[in-house]
Design goal:
alpha+beta; Endonuclease, Chain A; 4-stranded mixed beta sheet; 6 helices; 9% strand; binds zinc ion
Amino acid sequence: MTVPRSQGELSPAPYVIAYRRPRVPMSRRGSTIARAMGIRPPSLRARRATRGNTPEATTSARMKAVRQSGTAPELRVRRLLTNAGLRYRICPDDLPGRPDLANKSRHWALFVHGCFWHAHPNCRLATVPKTNRAFWIEKLTANRARDATKARALRKLGYKVVTVWQCELDDPKLPQTLPRRLTSSSTRRRS
Ligand SMILES: [Zn+2]
């Protein structure tokens, strides 16, 4: 059923609404655009890291700064440890490799690894993409090597290094086994 348009009603087409875009200072434009696109603007840490303008240094510093913390798997592990009464610090800056969680007095460090990105051996989630295979193999191998370097540096300081894999998170026994893994037989080496 169509309602006849009454004489006084305005038809929408010929009216152009005068619209002025709000002025955004040049210095903030990047982040405004990013926000409009749904991208989070760079963190303070990232901005600090990129203040110097040498290209190599900045790229590496930026990559380091955008390292994610508080991903869903990580939150699950944190909750699990809290429930088990274990205390930890999140991403302590003063430890080599910045483990996801660590306890300095108990000398353990924990990484929560995604099976794909960290190439979990013999895991169904650790696949290599079919396109650009060579690129991916090189990248994932480098990720693994980096993980090993980090773990080595921590062990050198006397830390027990535990990795929780993404695929382990669904294991119903994890709430019992993980605290045990962290607290048992600390392979501490005193120098
Ligand atoms: Zn896995």
